[in-house]
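hey so u asked for the seq, here:
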Amino acid sequence: MNCHHGHGKGKATLVLTHIFGGILMAVAISLLFGFFVMVLWNQLMPDIFGLKTITYWQGAGLVILSRLLFGTAGHPKHGHKQKCTHRNVTDQDPCVSHTAEGEPQV
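ran it, structure tokens below
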């Protein structure tokens, strides 16, 4: 008798739950960042630069705009592996001076 009947449905539900949870967390974090941007802007920018205060939604818009302009803040995108290049042990860094024995000099 086959005990694995319907097993694929449970896995699909789990995947959809993770996707939905991830989207929900991203929205919640974005809303939280919007609040922090608004507070920091309203505390600093009017006094330092004489700019007007902003609303919550303007702060959230600044978060979205900065994400679009600057990308993922230095983190590699998922699914793209970084290529690693390894130097041979015998290669010497041209910026580091070495002793006659080949040891790096501090």
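The chain has a mean pLDDT of 78. The longest helix spans residues 7-49.
lmk if thats what u needed
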